[in-house]
UniProtKB/TrEMBL annotation:
This is Regulatory protein. InterPro entries: WH-like_DNA-bd_sf. Gene3D superfamilies: Winged helix-like DNA-binding domain superfamily/Winged helix DNA-binding domain (1.10.10.10).
Amino acid sequence: MPQSRRPAPPLDAAALERLALRYVERYATTRGKLYAYLTRKLRERGWDAAEPPALDELVGRFAERGYVDDRGFAESRAAAMTRRGYGARRVAGALRAAGIAGADLGPAESIVADGAVTSAVAFARRKRLGPFARTPLDPASRQKALAAFLRAGHDMALARRLLALEPGALDGDDADQAGLSLS
């Protein structure tokens, strides 16, 4: 007969802080994600004190100490997603899901805006669409490719311009040679 596991004891203030510290040392995170993690742990294990836990205070203290940096997280995530070929809408959705808002979004938005064309070209290269396709796309395939660009968060006009290019029209990373821009 297998041994049953004892349930973990309810959390107190010290245990909650240890959990939070362990979480931020293992993962790049945001205030929102840390708060959600601690809330989940409290729900799972319970609270062993008369007064309610001060989660806002704990998360704020971690942010003051620099353990949690929403702006740095946003910049890093935006740059990584842009390099992988995701567009502005997709990046913005990921940052909202991570709990990033307000002034912390500014630098990340500029990273995405500056790399919009490069990101769309990277997406086209990875999916072998437009100038990176082996053969020209038929109308049904072009619609599917346009839908893929839109799901990836790219601007429709830019996606259409990329898909209009003939296979082999771009060599390397030089999107300027084809006159691609957001305007």
